Amino acid sequence: MTDSTTGAAAEAVAGSGMLAAFSEGLSRAIALAGQSTVAVHARHRMGSSGIHWRPGFVVTAEHTIKREDDITLTLPNGQTCGATLVGRDNSTDLAVLKVEESACAVADLSDSSTLSVGHIVLAAGRSAENGLSASMGVISAIGGGWRTWHGGQIDQFIRPDVTLYPGFSGGPLVDIQGRILGMNTSGPRHLALTLPSATVNRVVEQLAQRGRISRGYLGVGLQPVRLPAMLAQVLHLPQTAGVIVLSLEAGGPADAAGILIGDVLVSLGGAPVGDIADVYAQLGPEQIGKSLVAEIIRGGRQMQVTLRVGDRP
User: Fold this and answer.
1) Are 275 and 243 in contact (CB under 8 A)?
2) Alpha-carbon distance 118 to 142, whole Å?
3) Residue 169 catalytic?
4) Minimal CA–CA distance to 100: which of 114, 81, 79?
5) What is the pLDDT of residue 5?
6) Torsion of CA 52, 56, 61, 66, to 10 degrees
7) Which helix or strand (DSSP H or E) is residue 127 part of?
8) Looking at residue 98, what is its pLDDT?
9) What is the pLDDT of residue 14?
10) What is the DSSP letter of 106?
11) Annotated active-site residue in 49, 91, 133, 169
12) For 104, left (φ over 0), alpha (ψ -120 to 50), or beta?
């Protein structure tokens, strides 16, 4: 055997050893995260996954909770136990369940702000039939804070390139040390999105204390609309878009302030409004009970209306 052949064989052995060690490390990471990953049974036929986030509290994806009574969990040891719904928030797709504190291990959480594009991550899920399951990928996109279509504030945009198999929604995103970075859920076009640990912590705290998330509301149905460029120029508007009022809740804040169906909202609280997200941005819990000046266009004329922000029922 030549020296070159011997060297190639040694490299191959070393390489396979590194791969074996890497593979074993991933297996250990999933096993560690799996100690706090449960199966949640709160809908017909297909369950979902959940995370024992803090002692006595399990988090899961809100959209998978189809019944609020007779919710059960399958624990990592295969046993089942009952769970009580503490609260749910569809704006962040988070639900919190109450269980016995000793049900299973509590999640070992990690700071998702340390993530970068390209980091290897794992998605975990659990079902009563198959036990713990996993998929692997990388972080494909990272961004700053963002607001969901329903007005929920998410601290960080995390898009992992992992497969969320049926029942994986509500399960954890796991780093290669086995620590949990956040909760996975299905985004637009069934792409995986991860709610970072900071967001989950905040929502769990509020739901555990109050059973719901307080958010401001105006009692209106809105839709984005384009403004004629000439009208925007005449009215000295900084944008050529606004939101039109399509419906009013009787007795709601907007109705009480004199808003009419067909009004076009172009500014709220001194900030331009070009989309519904701009309205949600002004309706955080700190705004409840406060007054906001809204600039509207009605019949081609610009006018101001003062609204008192309500507490969303």
Assistant:
1) yes
2) 10
3) yes
4) 81
5) 60
6) 130
7) strand 120-127
8) 97
9) 60
10) P
11) 169
12) beta
Query: What span, in angstroms and rounded, lies between the C-alpha atoms of 40 and 170?
Result: 9
Q: What does the block give as tokens for 148? A: 């969901």
- Catalytic hit among 89, 93, 155, 278: 93
Report CA-CA distances (Å) from 57 to 52, 83, 86.
6, 9, 9
The reply to whether 102 belongs to the active site is: no
> Is residue 263 among the annotated active site residues?
no
Which pLDDT tens digit goes with each residue over 44-80?
888 999 999 999 999 999 999 999 999 999 999 999 9
Q: For the whole model, what pTM was predicted?
A: 0.78
Burial call 273-298: b when 16+ CB within 10 Å, e when fewer:
bbebebbbbbbeeebbeeebebbbbe
Poorest-pLDDT segment among 115-119, 194-198, 272-276: 272-276
Residue with tokens 């998410």: 154
In terms of Cα–Cα distance, which of 65, 158, 148, 53 is closest to 106?
A: 53
pLDDT band, residue 1 (cuts 50/70/90): low
In the chain, % of residues over pLDDT 90:
72
Dist CA 132 CA 82 (whole Å): 20
pLDDT in tens, 89-104: 998 999 999 999 888 9
What is the rounded distance in angstroms from the CA atom of residue 310 to the CA atom of residue 313? Answer: 9
> What is the number of alpha carbons within 13 Å of residue 52 lying toward its C-beta?
27
Find residue 182's DSSP bridge partners. 173, 196
Give the Cα separation of 205 and 225 in Å (integer).
37
Q: Is the pLDDT of residue 236 over 90?
A: no
Q: How many residues does the chain have?
A: 313
